[in-house]
Amino acid sequence: MAENFDIALSDAIDDAMVRAERLFTELEDKTKDGPGVTRVAWGEGEQIGHDMCEAWAKEMGLEISVDVAGNLYMTLPGKNREAPVFITGSHMDTVPCGGNYDGAAGVVSGLAVIQAFLAADILPEQDTLVMAIRAEEGGSWFSGRHGGHLGSRAVLGRLWKEELHTAYHNHFEKSAYEVIKDAGFDPDAIANEPRYLDPKRIKGYCELHIEQGPILLAEGKSVGVVTGIRGNRRVRDGKVYGEYNHGGATPQSYRKDAVLAASEFLNRFEEVGLQKLADGKDLVFNPGILHTDPNVNGLSKVCGEVDFTLDMRSEEVDTLEAMKSAAEDIATEISECRGVTIDLGEFSASSPTILHKDEQQRMHAGCQALGIDAIAMASGGGHDAAEFQHEGVPSSMVFIRNDKGSHNPDEAMTMEDFCDGTKVLAWMMATA
Ligand SMILES: [Zn+2]
Q1: How far, in Å, from the CA of 259 to the mean position of ligand 1?
Q2: Which of 66, 92, 111, 292 could pair with 49 in a Cys bridge, judged by C-beta atoms 3.0 to 4.6 Å apart?
């Protein structure tokens, strides 16, 4: 084992689980909302989470600071205070009526590691910051024009001009600018230059998060090493235009059936996608919306119009681009063959993020040293880690097995698996 990681530290992490579990339980009690929990971005529930983390950090004597956007930093001073810092953290907001662990697990694990460092007399060379990040669930809380992950992007210099005004908070019915001001922070001081966090002053960022899919459970592993965060190409407003006609009187060869054209389009898209998977590419896809207008169409009519969406995600830009081209080619062919028009509209796009390769290697080495049998896996959902990686901070993520997905009240992580993941995080923090 590396010199900073010994049995004493491993035992100290086991001990820290008691305090961590207490925080999870109290946090759930205080932010309960029907069957789930609700911690509104820059709202009451999120602040309760920040306050509880801060209370634990103060018990441990950590330095506390809050930035202009309300992100909280709990700092264990290192031996050399001038050295670039190591950051761990995640977000304390949830989606409406979500689960207790998505986000919070990453902040609580960081504090558990610090408690174990103190108990085992381990002091890293550089400062270690546990960061509770604001408003990661931007897609749920905000509509209007924005790029998500508002808390981390606000301090990494990644906000677009005017974004604080165009992002509209659905719960408070105000702009992000007003919501941040109301929460007691300083939106006027949020600027891309100079940014609050200087990537050159950050040695690394590591985020622990529950897995949001079923892979670790199916594979029987407690921990996953995340390779990257998938990007996407999306058809947000797809249309198939055919021709409404009499379902009995129109011979089959005269029809321009929009439903049959849409079905063929999706089936052929699936065939191409499955071939990509067979070729070893990373890809997931789904048509989320597919409907006709029941006020216009009916049982005895040939359908003239279908609305649909199509979401495709991959870690690989070339796979995303190939699938986009395939969708366009298939749409053109079917349109010609069937005499319909398949209009895919404008694709929206987000880039995949490949997490730092050396940090992934370091994490695998840690898992091996700890006797934890981990697998490498992609993340389907977005995370703040992507924002750090995009700014050149060597970034990594550890996933924890979690039953029943996330963004719902039933997400289920065991404290045993959380303990395994926290040990992996401790390795990353101790050997940085
Ligand atoms: Zn999350």
Answers
A1: 37
A2: 92
